[in-house]
Amino acid sequence: MRVVLAGGGTAGHIEPALALADALRHLDRSVGITCVGTERGLETRLVPARGYELELVPAVPLPRAITPSLLTVPGRLAGAINAVSGVLDRVGADILVGFGGYVATPAYLAAKRKGLPIVVHEANPRPGLANRLGARLTDHVFTGFPDAALPKAEFIGTPLRRGIVTLDRLSTGDKARSWFGLENDRPTLLVFGGSQGARSINEAALAAAPVLRRAGIQVLHVIGPNNTVEHEPPPGDPQYVLLPYVDRMDLAYAAADVALCRSGALTCAELTAVGLPAAYVPLPHGNGEQTVNAERVVRGGGGLMVDDAGLSPDWIIQNVLPILRDPERVVVMSEAASRLGRKDADIMLARKVLEIAR
């Protein structure tokens, strides 16, 4: 059997696809897997690093409004559909699974043209254009959010890496803190802004650093691979560890007591799966899905939320610092977050894909 996975651009599209790939191989070692992406996305690094075949096709961004660029879409889309069709032919595809992003639209249309079964997975509560189209072409639609706005959809959760869903933060904590050069007996704040980082979160956390340090809080701060900061915290104790990127996010989660982060679908799925409470700062643009993601966790007691404009050093000091200084509150919020997490979505989706393909 040969499965083609289409999802690219951000980690939110790529990581669930790779988690599904791992689960498929776990269930049936003979399954052949090919990922389809574009040269502009993180898939060019993440997919080969996980040992899977990657085929690149042209990216076709779909404008959200009627603009002059809309006139160029049909020709570019036709070229991308032909490119994906060529991939499907070369690998002898039996089924296509799409996760959204620029590559998903031509992939869905190419698979439909060839009569291949299509599976759509949408991680966000508000689907993008590609998955709204894909959902019209198939009866096999699965979501990572309970109330996602797609017809015929079945909620199963978001596929996550085994290293995340099997993580025992309590038993791994000391090892994880040592990995990052942190002390074992201090409250730890993890700061990150998704796979690309977030300038507003970076600036607010760095400005709050002196007060956090005086309160005995150590910080693991992932600023993003393309971001820089004007002033790094001076060396000293407690530690303030500043890193451009972390490949072992499982260890980052294990090292932390609380996170300060964006609220993308993948981030919320991972943090609830491992039971890590967070202060969520939804992305201020887009279609508002990050706010909806965070609201669900906040209602369940597993986090706080502040809009991007309201995030400041004072907000961190007044809202996040008291949680870090209250171990009992951290435990209560951790348990609340874990009740919202799903740890079996990768295996569940893999079984569905194999059943549909057969």
From TrEMBL:
Cell compartments where the protein resides: Cell membrane
Xref: CDD domains: GT28_MurG (cd03785)
Listed EC numbers: 2.4.1.227
Domain named Glycosyltransferase family 28 N-terminal: residues: 3-142
Catalytic activity: di-trans,octa-cis-undecaprenyl diphospho-N-acetyl-alpha-D-muramoyl-L-alanyl-D-glutamyl-meso-2,6-diaminopimeloyl-D-alanyl-D-alanine + UDP-N-acetyl-alpha-D-glucosamine = di-trans,octa-cis-undecaprenyl diphospho-[N-acetyl-alpha-D-glucosaminyl-(1->4)]-N-acetyl-alpha-D-muramoyl-L-alanyl-D-glutamyl-meso-2,6-diaminopimeloyl-D-alanyl-D-alanine + UDP + H(+)
Membrane topology (UniProt): Peripheral membrane protein
Residues reported to bind UDP-N-acetyl-alpha-D-glucosamine: 10-12, 124, 161, 195, 290
Keywords: Cell cycle, Cell division, Cell membrane, Cell shape, Cell wall biogenesis/degradation, Glycosyltransferase, Membrane, Peptidoglycan synthesis, Transferase
Major place of residence: membrane
Keyword Translocase carried by entry: no
Domain Glycosyl transferase family 28 C-terminal: 188-345
Record-linked SUPFAM superfamilies: UDP-Glycosyltransferase/glycogen phosphorylase
Lipid biosynthesis recorded as keyword: no
Pathway: Cell wall biogenesis; peptidoglycan biosynthesis
GO molecular function, one term: glycosyltransferase activity
Family matches, as InterPro entries: GlcNAc_MurG, Glyco_trans_28_C, GlycoTrans_28_N
Coiled-coil intervals, chain numbering: none
HAMAP family in UniProt: MurG
PANTHER family: GLYCOSYLTRANSFERASE (PTHR21015:SF22), UDP-N-ACETYLGLUCOSAMINE--N-ACETYLMURAMYL-(PENTAPEPTIDE) PYROPHOSPHORYL-UNDECAPRENOL N-ACETYLGLUCOSAMINE TRANSFERASE 1 (PTHR21015)
NCBIfam families (UniProt xref): murG
Similarity-based family: Belongs to the glycosyltransferase 28 family. MurG subfamily.
Function: Cell wall formation. Catalyzes the transfer of a GlcNAc subunit on undecaprenyl-pyrophosphoryl-MurNAc-pentapeptide (lipid intermediate I) to form undecaprenyl-pyrophosphoryl-MurNAc-(pentapeptide)GlcNAc (lipid intermediate II).
Protein name per Swiss-Prot or TrEMBL: UDP-N-acetylglucosamine--N-acetylmuramyl-(pentapeptide) pyrophosphoryl-undecaprenol N-acetylglucosamine transferase
Species annotation: Nonomuraea spiralis
Lineage: Bacteria, Bacillati, Actinomycetota, Actinomycetes, Streptosporangiales
Gene: murG
